[in-house]
Specification:
3 helices, alpha+beta, about 35% strand, nine-stranded antiparallel β-sheet, Multidrug-efflux Transporter 1 Regulator Bmrr, Chain A, globular
Length: about 190
């Protein structure tokens, strides 16, 4: 699992959001239906609007249940990342993302199995052995090298992280596990 830590200035995620249930295995039909309802020209409009990392069309998961319980509701946003100064059309939803660090995990393979396995592997194998834990913020999937049908592709999982508590040391977040986190609303959604 190829992982890098990235420091990012504040940015915004803009696109079309919907509340959907969390589904652990297979394609989430609610997300699939949400994306299918968008006209093809809307994908082009969003791509043209994106101007910062993570690049390309993004799958954004926000307001996740702290325990990632199957069936719990989350906000899914199909959109792009833009800099704070980029004008955003009023018909798009916006998630404000503060300055922070991100673990960027690269995965290649069939969709959605590889991505779901990467998420599970990060929780079970990467976080316990690295000095990072999740912090509040959206989880983002970028497709930097898409294929025509997106059935197999390179994907980057962007997870918001902060330094983990070290043995004998302290960190700002207390003793939370590396994959559970508080749910404060650090960003807002806007509908024009």
């Amino acid at each position: 699992m190829e992982t890098r830590i990235v420091d990012r200035p504040a940015f915004r995620l803009v696109g079309h959001a919907a509340r959907v249930p969390l589904i652990h295995r297979g394609i989430n039909p609610y997300i699939q239906q949400h994306i299918a309802a968008l006209p093809a020209e809307e994908h082009l409009r969003l791509k043209a609007l994106g101007d910062t990392e993570p690049g390309g069309l993004l799958a954004v998961f926000d307001d996740l249940d702290a325990d990632y319980d199957e069936g719990s509701e989350l906000t899914y946003l199909h959109g792009v990342a833009v800099s704070p100064s980029t004008p955003v059309p009023g018909d798009l939803d916006v998630i404000e993302v503060p300055v922070g660090r991100w673990a960027v995990i690269r995965a290649v393979g069939p969709h959605p199995q590889t991505l779901q396995k990467t998420w599970a592997t990060a929780a079970a194998e990467w976080f316990p052995f690295n000095p990072w834990r999740l912090r509040p913020g959206p989880e983002i999937v970028a497709v930097p090298e898409p294929t025509d049908d997106l059935s197999t592709a390179t994907r980057e999982l962007w997870l918001p992280v902060e330094p983990a508590q070290r043995p004998g040391g302290h960190s700002a977040g207390g003793n939370r596990s590396p994959v559970s986190r508080p749910r404060p609303a650090l960003h807002r959604r806007r509908r024009g």
